[in-house]
Write a structure and sequence with these properties.
Layout lengths: L1 H19 L5 H13 L8 H17 L4 E6 L5 E5 L8 H21 L1
Antiparallel strand pairs: 1-2
């Protein structure tokens, strides 16, 4: 089980490394998912917009497990989410693993589209 997870995470990292030329950290992965979900590419994002993109990514990822759902989009096309159920309390390593599992599922779903 642990080896399977490690292999799946490595596959995601390798795919992103191949695409962008360097191994991304968690923030970079969330930023990329946020841009994908916003579906609006700009050359520059403000610091606040980057934080918002990572929030969009996190909500998108956690919507896979029913913690959030999309309420709609605002006039600028930004998705807005509502919490459906609280995310369980976890330690930092557990949170990272939890997000990684959701990231793996997200990219698996993208490949299946």
């Amino acid at each position: 089980m642990q080896d399977d997870f490690a292999q799946q995470w490595k596959r995601v990292e390798e795919m992103l490394t191949e695409r962008f030329g360097k191994k991304p950290n968690m923030e970079a992965i969330l930023f990329l998912i946020g841009i994908q979900e916003l579906n609006h590419i700009k050359k520059k994002f403000t610091k606040e917009q980057k934080q918002d993109l990572m929030h969009v990514a996190t909500c998108t990822l956690l919507s896979q497990s029913g913690y959030y759902e999309v309420e709609g989009r605002d006039k600028d096309g930004w998705p807005h989410f509502k919490e459906v159920q609280p995310v369980p309390k976890m330690s930092m390593p557990e949170q990272e693993r939890f997000l990684q599992e959701h990231i793996i599922a997200y990219f698996d779903d993208l490949e299946g589209r």
